[in-house]
Each structure stands twice: as C-alpha cells, then as structure tokens.
Amino acid sequence: MPGETQGTPIVEMRGIEKxxxxxxxxxxxxxxxxxxxxLGLVGDNSAGKSTLMKILTGAYQRDAGEIFVAGQPVxxxxxxxxRDVGIEMIYQDFALCGNMDVGQNIFLxxxxxxxxxxxxxxxxxEADRVLKRLKxxxxxxxxxxxxxxxxxxxxxxxxxxxxxxPRVVILDEPTANLSVMATNRLxxxxxxxxxxxxxxxxxxxxxxxxxxxxxxxxxxxxxxSAGDRYIRHTDEHEVLEIIVSGTRxxxxxxxxxxx
Amino acid sequence: MVTAKTTSLGRAPAQLAGGWEVGLLLFLVLLYVGGxxxxxxxxxxxxxxxxxxxxxxxxxxxxxxxxxxIVNKDLDLSVGSVYGLVAxxxxxxxxxxxxxxxxxASVLLCLLLGAAIGLLNGVLVTILKAPAFIxxxxxxxxxxxFVLALTHGQAIYxxxxxxxxxxxxxxxxxNVLGFNNQILIFAVVAATGAYVLAKTRWGYExxxxxxxxxxxxxxxxxxxxxxxxxxxISALCATLAALLSAAQDKGVTPLYGVSWELTVIASVIIGxxxxxxxxxRVIGSCLGAAVVVLIDKVLRxxxxxxxxVVIDGENVAVNARFTLPAGAVLVxxxxxxxxxxxxxxxxxxxxxxxxxxxxxxxxxxPPAYEMGGVALEGVQTKGAMAGDLGLETAxxxxxxxxxxxxxIVLTVLLWLTGLALRPDYWWNLSNTFAILLNYTELALIAxxxxxxxxxxxxxxxxxxxLALAGSTAAYFLKxxxxxxxxxxxMGLLAGMVAGLVNATVTVGxxxPAFIxxxxxxxxxxxxxxxxxxxxxxxxxxxxxxxxGRKANDVLLHFGFSLPPGFxxxxxxxxxxxxxxxxxVALAAGIVLAYTxxxxxxxxxxxxxxxxxxAGINTNRVRFLALLLSALCASMAGIINVAYFRSFNPVAGxxxxxxxxxxxxxxxxxxxxGYGTMIGSLAGAAAITLVxxxxxxxxxxxTMPQHWINVFIGVILIVAxxxxxxxxxxxxxxxxxSWRARRGQAVEAKHAG
Lengths: 259, 752
Fold this sequence. Notes:
Largest sheet of chain A: 6 strands, mixed
Radius of gyration of chain A: 19 Å
Strand content of chain B: under 5%
Mean pLDDT of chain B: 85
Pfam families (chain A): ABC_tran
Number of helices of chain A: 9
Number of strands of chain B: 4
CATH class of the largest domain in chain A: Alpha Beta
Organism (chain A): Mycoplana dimorpha
GO molecular function, one term (chain A): ATP hydrolysis activity
Distance between the termini of chain A: 18 Å
Keywords (chain A): ATP-binding, Nucleotide-binding
Protein name (chain A): Monosaccharide ABC transporter ATP-binding protein (CUT2 family)
Mean pLDDT of chain A: 85
Order of helices and strands of chain A: EEEHEEHEHEEHHEHEHEEHH
CATH topology of the largest domain in chain B: ABC transporter involved in vitamin B12 uptake, BtuC
Number of helices of chain B: 34
Oligomer: heterodimer
CATH topology of the largest domain in chain A: Rossmann fold
Structural class of chain A: alpha/beta
Helix content of chain B: 55-70%
Low-confidence stretches of chain B: 370-393
Strand order of the largest sheet of chain A: 6-9-10-3-11-12
Distance between the termini of chain B: 64 Å
CATH class of the largest domain in chain B: Mainly Alpha
C-alpha cells in the first residue's frame, strides 16, 4: 500500500515552472505518482491543476523543471508523445465524436486495418473486449455515441484511454457532468483500473469522490504546492483547510504529516 | 470608512469610428485620385463625385442593416434578391399595365413584403436553427426565381404614372440644393444606425449576442429576438434601397440587385466588421460601401486608351475606352471579399497598424490582446440529440431509421409519379437518357460535396467551379487550338486552383468555409464569363466531345459496331460520362465507408477537437475534402462542355443548390459528421427527378424554369430543416414519448 511501498515512482515532476505572459501559473511544483496509486489533485479555480496536467501530457511546454516517467527523463512536445509512453488524459467533455459508434470512437484515428480498409470485425471485437475489461455496460459497440447517456459516454472515453494500455490515466473533472448513479459506476471503474495496476490522477472539485477511491490527495494553491496527505490519515475538513488557508511555507508532505 | 478614490480611466475607446475608419477614408481619397489619373474625363468632374455618392447611398443603406446581422455572427445573403424582388413587386403593384395601385398602398405592401422576408430569414435561422448562410442563400435563389417569374425576363417602366406622384418620386432625384435626395436619406439612415449600434441597448445586445451567444443567453438577453431583429432591419434596409431605386429609375429590370449581396457583405467586412461576429461599426460599413462602389466604378468605367486602327494601309490613332468585360468586375469583387475577410482577424485584431506605428517611432508595441484560439475557429455546432433509433427498431422501422431512407423513398415515389403523369413518355428511351444525363452531372458534383459536408464544411462554389473548368477547357480548345488532352488537363487545373484557394482560405486562414467558397462562387463564375466574353466558344475537334457522348457513339467513332440487341440498347442509353461518374462514385463511396480516410472525414465533421486529440490531422482532411469537391465539379464542367459541344455561361448555375440539397436529402448533415455515397446518389436522383417532373408537359402545361428554381430552393430548405428537426432532434420521437408520458400520467391519475 502507498506510504509503505515506495519503489520507483511512475511519474515524478520536479520544480515545474510555467508562466503565461506576466502571470506565473506554476511556481516550483513537485508531483510524485506511484504505480497503481490514485492521486486526487485539488485546489481552487486557477490554482494551476489543469496547467500542471497539460504540462505532464505535453499540451503545454514547461518553462523550467524536470519530468521523469518510470525514472527516465522526458520532454513531451505534444500529447501524442506522452501517449506513446503510456500517459492518457480523459477530458472533461470526453472528446468523442457523437456521430460515430462506440467501436469507431474507441479506435478513433487508429482504426485497425486490413490492407487499405478498416477491419471492422477486429475493431468491434477489440472494442468489446476493452469494455468487458472495464466491466462497464454499454448496450452495443454499434451504438452511436450521441445516443448514449453522459455516464456511458464517459465509459467510452475511459475505454478509449485504456485501450492504449496506459500506465497513467489523468481524469479531468470526471464527475462534473454525471448523475449520482453514473458517478458511483465511474468510481467502481477507477478501482477496477487500480486493481490492474494503472496509476490515476483525478482533478476534481468534489472531495467526496476523492475520499471514496483516492490513496493520496495533493493541494495546489495559486500555482504552488500546499502539501499532500494520505487519504487514510486525513479528513475532508483538513483538506478543505489546506485549500482555503494553506501556503507553500507551511506545506507538509504526506510522510511529514503522519509523524 | 474608506472612500473609493476616482482614478482617471483615461479616454474611453471610440464607439462610432476609430483608426480603421480614418484609414478607410484616406484609402478612399487615394482611390479616387487614382481613378482621376486613369480616367480624368469621368472622375475629375463633380458630376462623378455626385454619382458615386448617389450609388453608394443604396449600397450603404443595405450595408447599415447588414452590419447588425454580421455583428450578430449571422449572415444575410438574401439582400440582393430582396432588393430586386421589392423593386419588381413595386413595379407590378404600381405600374398601370399591372395592378395600378396608388403610391401609398404600393409602398406599404412593399414594406410589408420586406418585413415578411426579414422575419422569415430570422425565424429560419433562430427558431428553426438552420445555418444562416444556407437559409439566406436559399431565400436568395427563391427571390431571384420570383423576380424572373414576375417580370418574365422583361423590364417594366412606369415613368408616365410616376409624374403624378412627385412627392415620392422626388426621393430619387436631385433636390433644390443640388444633390440627390438619396444621399440625404443615406446620411439619416447611417447616422441612426451608427447611433443605435454603438450607443443604445439594442446595439449592446447585438455585440453580446455576436461575441458569445451562450453568455448572452445566460445574461438574460433575448438572443433570438436580437437576431430576428437584425434580419428585419437588414431586409427593411434592402426594401428602402429598392424603393429609392424605384423612385430614381421609375422602372425595373430583372437584373436589379444581382450579386449585390457580394457588394454589401464586402463593404461591411472591409468596413472592419468581423465575419466571426461581435465586431463592426456602421460608419466603417458605410465607408466600406463607398470603397467598394468606387472600385466597381473604376473597373466598369475603364480608362481611355489610344487604339491604332489601320485604315486603308494608314495607321490612324483613335480614342477609345478600355473596359473590362462584365465578368472581370465580379472577379475583382469576389477577390476583394476573400481578401477583406482576412483583414479583421489578421490586421485589426493583431493591431498591425498600431504596432507598425510604434515600431516607426521606436516605442514599445501596444499590449497584445489575449488571443483565444477558439475565437478564430469557424462555427461548428452539432445536434447531439438523436435517440437510440437505429437499434431499437426492426424491419421497416429499421429502414426508416437510416439517414438515407428519405432519399431512396423519394426517388422511387418521384419516378412512379412521373410514370403516372405521363405513362406514354416517361418510359421512353430518350427521356430516360435525358434524365440520366442530368443525373450524371449532379451526382458527380454531389460525390465531392459529400466529403466536404461530412467533414463539417460547405462548398458553395461547385456550380461556379464547374463553369470555370468548362470555360477553361473550351477556351483552350477554341481560342488556343489546344489538343483535347491539354484542354482537359487545363480545365482540371483551373478547377483545382479554385479548390486550392477555397481550401487555403478555409483551412490555412481558419475562416468559415461558407465565406471562402462564397468568394469563389463569384470569382469562378466571373472568370468563366471573362473567358467567354466576345467569343463563341464552340466548334472544336469531335474527339474531345466523345467525353459527353453515348457509349454507342464512342464505339462507332472508333469503328466498332455493336450487333442489335440488349447490349446495344444499353450502349445507346448509357453515355461515357455516366460510366465515369459510376466509377468515381464507387471509388469515393468505398473510401468514405471503408477506409481510415473516410472515417477521419466523418470524425473531423463530428467533433473537430476530439479528432485532433486522437491524432487525426484535421486540417489535411478538410483540405483534401475541399480539393476533391473542386475536382469533381471540374470533371462535371469538362463533361458538360463536351456534351453540349459548346460552353454556355450559365452552365452549372444553381447546381450548388441542387448538390447541397442532394447531399442533405441523402442523409448528410449541414453540421457535418454524416453523409454516405449511396445516400447522396439517391438524393441527386431525387433532385433530378423533381426537375424532370417539373419540366414535364402534362396536358399542355409546362412550368416555367424560374418556378422550378423556386421549388428546388424550397426543397433545400425543407431538407435542411428535416435533417435538423427529424433526424437530429428526433422531434417525432420526442412528441411520441411526451404523449406516452402524458398518457401514463392520465392513467395513473385514473387509477389513483
């Protein structure tokens, strides 16, 4: 369990800096993520959560700092490069094509081929396999995505992400557009992924969800790290307090906070 | 208590006019001086200045209304035809040879007509959610059809009766102060418009709606009414301009207002408004109108030259005037439109003038605006509302859930209708051949357009590109005496260059496809008219014409003679172009349905951002789709010329209307993401059959051509609305489920 098993982190970000013009969005932020860990990333609006994740996926370029994936230094210039080393991001609006069916969406842009043609049989079979692995129920892989409910659309988005066999999945506000039922299903899916050894970072405003499945929570405040805590050794009250009044100077790491 | 100190905010930014307007004014003066130097006899007189202002008045009045529409992020392509239609209707109402109504009644009815068209535009665009360019383009074609039908192509004059009503007709004439009353009216309209747009609640609501409609809705602004209002203003301005022209000319010709929408939109865009909405000033639009009218005048007036004429072996200098052929003006105005839409995003928004001025003085550049990447993207809306239709139904229901069901059913029904109306003729070989030929041209265009529409763009220039390719081929054959192969290559090249421009402006400069291809619509047709100017493009080697012949004729040409029988009968009906179209459609259909490229096209049209995240090069996909559309239209043009053995300047006219309607009826969505080749081919068949049916002589009655175009326009708008409301919003399904729910509620009440 995290805290006890350290080993090599799957992702390590050190001293990340990012400025947009005159605005310093991130100031020397560190982040560590271990295999199979679910890390909640919380903070106020404009705390830099999304910026940090976009730097991790390569959507933004960092001004300073280092990123290691499984111990190797990396420098992604685009999200496609981070995907190649196994980092997947699931966007808040799922980024799916509503006019296409579930199978086509899961393999969007990399449809399996035989000769010049799309191998439809293989595509749908693989899609079905991925959905089964996730243990989510989507009626049919032939269904158009726009006819699915929000929760099922998200299942497709997650299935799409894990079909790349990722080591890290980043979920941006995954429960923002979901009903209570769908949220519970999603949390189960996340635990299923965790069992399969996939590390996850979840950006969320809803502490309840993070406390339901998370191992650790990290707080960002105005572009700076305000510390992190193990879920088992903290409560929502403490995390809220850090979000509201935490500072970098008083930030404690999860280990320090346990002592 | 801390009192808030009032700090100086500096001067508030100008609302009525700004640096851009000053620049336009300078440009206008330069242009006028330029006109004077090339053509002093015309431009150096006060008469010319007066004429310029007078002609600017009518364009400017329409531009005032158009500014409201464009700032709303809408577009009104119907103004030219509203202008023409109102002038014609006024003539029909007022002229003694027709209804002979009084002046007050005529004017009132015209105003009502203008308001009705504006309201129709507004309702189509807002409540019925049809894209602005497609709704108003249809109204443009329908209006043109009405103009031709109501005038029968003849001019109507009523100058004698006009003398009885000096009060109204004086509006179009020079007043006691020595200038035309229209200029005065223009000034009043422009001042009112400028004040309303810049200073009043109406104007602020307009800017909010154009800048971010969603935010405006959240802020409680009735955006639908704001947009309908703008269409009303635009149509009423066009009506006013039409009444002024009626007062001035005391008559009307069917050519009134042709391509005026181009002039007006170019004016507004040159005046600094953004085609992407949210920016624009009335004063700028009026100055833009003056610039466009002046350019138009310089081009049309031409310049004096001395021509050396050989008379009896002696060289004699003759004073002549060099004028450009009619098509050339259209070409320049179209180019102006395409260039002008680039002005706002690339010059004004990036403050090029301000930064250059600062650079010259060695000062630091002014702070750049925060440039949202999204702001430059074209409009992409989708209806993600359809239900689980396809999977829940079986049998017939399953067939009707197909997006192309409508087209297939329509084709069968229409063909049976033809059979019922004229059982003696419809079966006929010659009729079948004629229908098949018309079908071939339309289907070929629809093949390319399917890709464009599926990728979420639109190509309004297909008909014009057809004409351009055809005229280029004909020009090379006839004037330059090229061999058929070269002519075909050159025709294709010309069409592809047009497609390249479309694709570059749309994809490279990130402007909406409808505005880029609208520019090309005028440019290509103007170029085609330019090529044909003063020449009879006909009479060239028959080997070229084989492209448009029946298979049997081609075989005969090469010395094959088929034995009589089934094969020969088929060869006598099927022509080369039909076979060619079949293979093109087959290849394009397979690529669209079964290859990654086809799926990339569909995903680009379905959700551009998702496709880009998935690593699809959406720019390349859209670029290629637009090129393919131009290629198909060029092939159709080359075949058209071969079939007719000559080039006719009206070739391909209204074909964009037919082709868009065919693709939409065939299951394409005007918002992108849908489209199948079978559907588009069936849709093309349906449109061809409609045309054939309307041309059918039933018991001595045939419908005039103008009404047919009106009818096709109505079909297009109905098809778009059916797509939006039945296929995507599934309105019938929603009504059914609402009824079912209500039924249950009632039952529950009874049970309880």
